[in-house]
């Protein structure tokens, strides 16, 4: 009889511990899972027949070791899946596609054929700023790897994005997560993490300003250009709050402002997006129409205020939004409700993903969502 137990091999970094694995730590449907960070044990001792690798590799494969490892694991396991939980919609690991059964991402291009293209700066938006604003990098990073056949893109599925995870941001909690994990593994994580940040109704901010405290200095030139460009557009504009403040003051301010501007970082989806929604603020963000993701908090004119990548409508849309309390309340309420629906349906989502990985059919009940 084939075993339905799944071994999860993961890298115990912040994103993986507090977000990518969060549904597995907390879901009632996360049964038959065996967690490990020990690759040697996986290769030599694991008796399970299904393996999920989460966030294990970093960067591109320079010497073929990643491919050789995946090939050897594929030969051992009946089913092999990989969850790339890096920031961008693009991926450094698409050359693994021919050697896995499933490949998960936090967000995917709606048009999967885009994964066969080379983007300047390795991001679809960095390519945009190179093509339209002449932004260059020296040296320019080489293209990302691609699958051998475009048909392999059919193996790419959505898991969940960082909306599912631990909030608010806390350096102490991050340090504690690392220590608890080192001491007692997944048992410590299930004790540390909770759903208490999802309230019954969204908070009601009182300050008619748009918070725009984001860093633009820690990115490559083409990747960080959007942030630099937006900072210049809003400089000294009375509707925006900018500059750096301590984290505790930053979190308090998030609960007070009516809107939060969240440009892309290394990827399109940022912690600021979720912080805005949890605090009852309206998320203002460069258009996300090129992506599929779950939870889908990015429905233009329904759950967030979409602005163009060139920022030409940023000031006008922000001013109009801040002067329209009914629209602000509608957008913030819709986004908060969408997040509530996601948490309510998390057990079903986990079951669906685990059934896919095991290779069995799953017909989950319909979960309420916004139309």
TrEMBL record:
It comes from the Bacteria. This is Uncharacterized protein. The lineage of its organism: Bacteria, Pseudomonadati, Bacteroidota, Cytophagia, Cytophagales.
């Amino acid at each position: 009889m084939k075993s339905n137990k799944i071994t999860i091999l993961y890298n115990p970094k912040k994103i993986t511990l507090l977000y990518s694995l969060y549904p597995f730590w907390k879901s009632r449907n996360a049964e038959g899972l065996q967690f490990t960070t020990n690759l040697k044990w996986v290769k030599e001792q694991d008796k399970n027949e299904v393996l999920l690798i989460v966030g294990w590799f970093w960067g591109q494969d320079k010497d073929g070791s990643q491919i050789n490892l995946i090939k050897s694991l594929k030969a051992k396991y009946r089913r092999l899946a990989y969850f790339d939980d890096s920031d961008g919609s693009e991926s450094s690991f698409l050359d693994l596609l021919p050697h896995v059964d499933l490949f998960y991402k936090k967000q995917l291009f709606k048009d999967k054929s885009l994964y066969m293209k080379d983007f300047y700066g390795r991001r679809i938006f960095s390519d945009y700023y190179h093509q339209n604003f002449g932004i260059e990098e020296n040296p320019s990073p080489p293209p990302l790897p691609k699958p051998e056949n475009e048909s392999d893109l059919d193996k790419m599925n959505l898991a969940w994005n960082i909306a599912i995870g631990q909030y608010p941001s806390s350096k102490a909690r991050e340090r504690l997560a690392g220590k608890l994990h080192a001491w007692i593994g997944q048992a410590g994580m299930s004790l540390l993490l909770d759903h208490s940040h999802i309230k019954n109704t969204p908070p009601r901010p009182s300050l008619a300003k748009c918070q725009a405290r984001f860093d633009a200095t820690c990115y490559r030139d083409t990747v960080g250009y959007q942030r630099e460009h937006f900072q210049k557009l809003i400089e000294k504009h009375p509707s925006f709050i900018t500059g750096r403040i301590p984290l505790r003051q930053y979190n308090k301010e998030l609960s007070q402002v009516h809107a939060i501007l969240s440009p892309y970082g290394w990827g399109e989806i940022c912690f600021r997006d979720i912080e805005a929604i949890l605090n009852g603020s309206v998320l203002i963000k460069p258009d996300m129409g090129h992506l599929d993701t779950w939870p889908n908090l990015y429905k233009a004119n329904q759950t967030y205020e979409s602005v163009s990548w060139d920022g030409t409508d940023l000031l006008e849309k922000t001013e109009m939004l801040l002067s329209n309390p009914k629209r602000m309340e509608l957008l913030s309420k819709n986004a908060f409700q969408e997040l509530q629906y996601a948490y309510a349906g998390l057990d079903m989502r986990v079951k669906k993903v685990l059934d896919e990985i095991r290779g069995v059919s799953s017909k989950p009940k319909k979960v309420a969502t916004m139309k």
